[in-house]
Amino acid sequence: MDQDALTAETATAADVPAAQALIEGARQWLRSRGIDQWQDPVPDAVLVRDAEQGSLFLVRQDEVVVAMVTVADSDSETWDVASSPAVYVHRLAVAQTHRGSRLGQRLLAWVEQRAADRGAAFVRLDCATDNPGLRSFYERQGFRHVSDVMVTALDGGRQLASSLYERELVR
To answer: Quick one: angle between helices 16-32 and 44-52, nearest 10?
Structure first.
């Protein structure tokens, strides 16, 4: 993959199996390290909704999906309603074959540029509180820890501890 160019394309419902495969790879990797993040299923209906709303984006290499992210204009289920316009990141995943390639960092930069172009003041995201590696990654990318909250798993099965992060965009 060209280290300078990143093309993220809007996903369709037909891309949901590829997105689920990325999530499954991340789930297995996290489980092998004793991290609870993404151990609850992400229902297909959630990814189909993301695709239908134009908020699920994919990165492909040689026609294979190697990264994904959902970008939304609101997230009232996790974040309190905020007065400053923000973009919310969910389901950021990179294929295990591309770990260490800086693809996650580049995808976050793509999200930040998209957010700035839309006039957002912040990029916000959350991750499992018990995922120190991901928390450290976000902090190295300039995200500030805001608080810890309890959220409901996407399948509605249980409550999960989640750490909220935001990065203020320079205007």
So the answer is: 130
Tokens of 151: 């959220």
Write down the pTM of the prediction. 0.90
pLDDT tens by residue, 35-66: 888 888 888 999 999 999 999 999 999 889 99
CA distance to 57, 70, 140, 168, per residue, from 165 (Å): 21, 16, 12, 10
Ramachandran angles phi, psi of 75, nearest 5°? -160, 70
- Helix runs in the chain, H state only: 16-32, 44-52, 103-117, 132-140
What CA–CA distance (Å, rounded) separates 143 from 122?
A: 10
d(Cα 1, Cα 161) in Å, to the nearest integer? 35
